[in-house]
Write the structure tokens for this entry.
Amino acid sequence: MGNCIWILLIFIWIRHLSGLELETETGQLSREVLRKAREPEFFEWLKRVRRRIHEYPELAFEEYLTSQLIRSELDSLGIQYTWPVAKTGVIGTIGSGSQPWFALRADMDALPIQEMVEWENKSKIDGKMHACGHDVHVTMLLGAAKLLQEQRKHLKGTVKLIFQPAEEGRAGAYAMIQEGAIDNVQAIFGLHIAPQIPTGTIDSRPGPILASAGRFLAVVQGNGKTKDPILAASSIVLALQQIISRETDPLESRVVTVTLVKGGHQGDEIPESVTLGGTFRCFTSEGMSFLKRRIQEVIELQSGVHQCKGAVDFMEVERRHYPPTVNDNEMYKLAKGVGVKLLGKTNVAKAPLSMGAEDFGFYSQRIPAAFFSIGVMNKTLTSTWLLHSPYLFVDEEVLPIGAAFHAAVAFSYLNDNAQIM
């Protein structure tokens, strides 16, 4: 019996020493990739890539030039890839081809916004802009690809590089998943720029971090005479607000917001119809089902009160509803630990819950995932405007940090899980 106890203690000690050795190796690799990413030549390459993407923004499922640039860079790095995936997506592969498989993701699409910042690399496409930082996301992932490829002999598994189209309202992640983007993948990691936190910092939280989101579009039909759709629509807008204030738990975060109302064109005529639309959000599938049902009931019944007819479309085909983005606890701990090694404990914060939505939630529904925000705020550069602003301006010092963070998380995950497989 005594011998068995000693053998068990020795085994535990050996495992402890192995863990320390693995921790040291992971920490060294993390610091090395950040040092490499910050070398002047590497940093200049990152800036050139980002600015080329920024100058030619493309909307959802139209990212042909962006996809071509990505493929060109992967070719120059000697990285194999699959294309097209979900029309314009690209999936690169680095490593041995053996398990474990780990994925890094970046979205590629821009927004229909006119850039108002005057600088030498301003968008050259009228009415289109990378106002959500997806040009930065692509660049950081290409930077990670270069770092991983240079250290591929140290990879204890395989990394998938997912360059995804159509995050902005078109559920590109869902389309990528349907075409096999995360088949055989054990876990996934993603980054998003955050203008509200300083460059050199990151934040996230375990569990739910971003809301589920859906949209609705309703038509209230009157007769242009006594059946007034404007009056009916006004009642609908007011009644929709009461769903949250009177029918839901005040301790649960839920949103119903009307963002669109279109009526007549004449000041002395009652229009035949009014169109209104908006968004609804929460953190559970049960909550989404409840909000959807009540929105439909309110629109139809309030229209009837005013002798009009109301019909609502939840646009689930062309505007698939996004699930909440939920961080797996173990993946969150791993990525947070890497962030601390790279940036220091004081530069890694716990993020608040957000009612914003991201189609990264489709990945987190299926496999363990971690989604982190990475700061781009630099007050000396006036890079303090929020996402989706025509004045968004990004501190490019984030590029090597994000590239290194991506690569270090991949190294860490493969090192940890190669011991288990």
Notes: The CA atoms of residues 143 and 403 lie 5 Å apart. The first strand starts at residue 80 and ends at 85.
